Amino acid sequence: MAASARVVVVGSLNVDSTSYVETFPAPGETILSHAFQVALGGKGSNQAVAAHVAGASVDLVARIGADAAGDFALATLERLGVPTNAIDRETDAPTGVAQITVADSGENTIIVTGGANLALTPAVVDAERDRVAAASVVLTQGELPVATIERLAGVADEAGARFVLNLAPPAPVSGATLRSADPLVVNEHEARAVGIAPAADAAAAADAADDTRDPDAAGGPIDAWRAAAASAVGRVARSVVVTLGPAGAVAAASDGSWVAAAPRVDAVDTTGAGDGFTGALAAMLAEGRSLDEAVRVAVAAGALAVQARGTVDSYAGRAAVLRAAGLADAPPAGDAPEGSA
Q: Which of 157, 209, 255, 264 has an alpha carbon within 20 to 30 A of 96's alpha carbon?
């Protein structure tokens, strides 16, 4: 692991309130949960933790409220070994919250209230210019204000840092911001929102399919998604990664396109698995691994995450993820981060 493997995450930080149910309620229906959990969440903090346990040196630029939820978030990050010195507290906004319902099938529904996350303005990016310039990879997500995402893309480009954009949820960023992403990380629905899709017949079949379709056919044939990602390189983004749930992921850059198949596992909770994928991907890119290899590691990280409940506490450490990906570790630079064994 290269000593310069530094990831700066500018992103959302929430506290998740999760109810576990047998099945989702119908509109107007009241049901009882059989379990409940409060945990750290938010795409920014999830991805920061995932990158940290994958071995990267991580800075998380985030905003929380001056409330008990904020205290809980800081304590959790400190327990996990993620630095908190770039997290400021807002006195006039609550800590962001996500209300999550997880069915016994492992699927989930999520409602996010931004709260203090909305204080991550372009001015914050300008104030963090030196931190961004020192990064190997700068990572953000679609949960931030569009103006902030676009300013971060510009600052990263000026600083020569690799800009990774997880456009989840889809946000109306400019074409210039998308084209600076290296890679743009999206799932199949987000991919379609930015004009990346497989052949029309496969796309129509995917839209009509239900959630019980065969994983190998998720979103259409995986090779069709690989071709779609390849066709988007240079047109939509510098490089592209499309996650396909239980089928794995595809990736494309100017030097090729690849498929990373996921192992078949029994999913317990899919909440945060995509963030586990993206954080591990950023960590691997920061240490100089190829996009092909980084996506293989990220798929392994996501597959391990869905086999445990919760978000950040479901992320496996570096050794376990590399072993699952069938890859050797590089000699670490100094002591491994806490939780990376």
A: 157
